[in-house]
Amino acid sequence: MTVRDVKDVLGARVLAGEEFLDREVKSACGSDMMSDVLAFSKDHSVLLTGLCNPQVIRTAEMLDIVCIIFVRGKKPDESMLEMARDRGLVVMATGHRMFSACGMLYQAGLHGGAI
């Protein structure tokens, strides 16, 4: 699956990194707790979160996350989007709740894997 496929499944809006939509995505992680993301996320994954602060961008950079999707209609401010652009991250937003968005991606074939 690619980031573009994820975008299409969720009907998400691209806020930054449109030039990277063809990157491969291997798994997904949904959490508002960055400590859980650090513990359980895998390489080349998508992060779904409602947490809208710069720590999300820093966490994604550390873990080789290729795309951040803000759920529940959350929208990061311009400074966060600039941080993401500087790091080559795709940032998207969707109006879906996290549970629904994760389920939609799972149903489309994107899994998180066992702990």
Automatic annotation (TrEMBL):
SUPFAM superfamilies linked to this entry: HprK N-terminal domain-like (SSF75138)
DRTGG domain residues: 5-107
InterPro entries associated with the record: DRTGG, Ser_kin/Pase_Hpr-like_N_sf
Record-linked Pfam families: DRTGG
Superkingdom of this protein's organism: Bacteria
Transmembrane segments: none
Gene3D superfamilies noted in UniProt: HprK N-terminal domain-like
Name by which UniProt lists this protein: DRTGG domain-containing protein
Organism: Enterocloster bolteae 90A9
Native organism taxonomy: Bacteria, Bacillati, Bacillota, Clostridia, Lachnospirales
